[in-house]
Amino acid sequence: MTFKLFSAILLCARILLPKANEDLLFTDSLLTPDENVTISFSPPFIINGLASDVDVTCSFTRGQVPAMTSIFSLVIAHSSTTDQPLYSYVASVNALEGHAHNISHDVEVISGLISNQRESSLHIRFKYPDSNLTGLYVCEVQGFDQIGKPVTKYAKVRFIYAEAQNSCKLIDGYLAELDTQEEMDFFREYLIKMNISYYFWSGATKQNGSWVNEHSPAVRPLFDWAPGEPTNYPSGNCQCSYPRNDWKLTACLCNSNRNDLGYVCEVPDGC
């Protein structure tokens, strides 16, 4: 049996026309959804110790938003928190300089282009990414309308439990099912060795009041729960663990938006 370590990366696409005196931090308070701004990432998760890079691409076509007469810049920004996001700029490209540059030293700029006739885009790459890159990402477009009035729009995508399970399926695996003491000990030793400090999903859920494995529901698991767990909180129907409880299992919200929730995939031998 092989375990593979993942930490999901969460992304969103946004457009923002800020005031000239704004600094390098901003919040969600003035953002309005817009489907014409896109941000994509590849791969859709981080493989700690295995992934060499994660690519992020921000793009926008001015012709799809007639109210904007010209584009000045594209910026990618990041927030490590998802409940009350505070974004900091990572990289940008503007019409004056004509080339992209990084604001954060943790990123490599691949390409950048501002065009009022075709698609404008900004492509960056994180080398040897880790869990610090999880959170929310913004694609920010700065431009002008005919009278200089700002326009604010965005789109958002969040990472939830089902996406972790689906990501494991991409490598013919499933969320790790820690149903024996031997597996629990191996899991704990592995995460301690990797010096992991954030939460992790595992593969059991509460169904009809009982905890069962999603992939192997016929197995009668012997879970190593933390003291006081599992709680009877109505929405705590998924399973996770974290270092403060010595990696013992706890009940978690299935739709948790924590930026520090990673996951471990269990891959059968031969895959």
Automatic annotation (TrEMBL):
Record InterPro entries: C-type_lectin-like (IPR001304), C-type_lectin-like/link_sf (IPR016186), CTDL_fold (IPR016187)
SUPFAM superfamilies listed in its UniProt record: C-type lectin-like
Domain C-type lectin: 161-252
Signal sequence, renumbered to the chain: 1-22
Keywords on record: Signal
Pfam families according to UniProt: Lectin_C
Entry keyword RNA-binding: no
Record protein name field: C-type lectin domain family 3 member A-like isoform X2
Organism: Biomphalaria pfeifferi
Lineage: Eukaryota, Metazoa, Spiralia, Lophotrochozoa, Mollusca
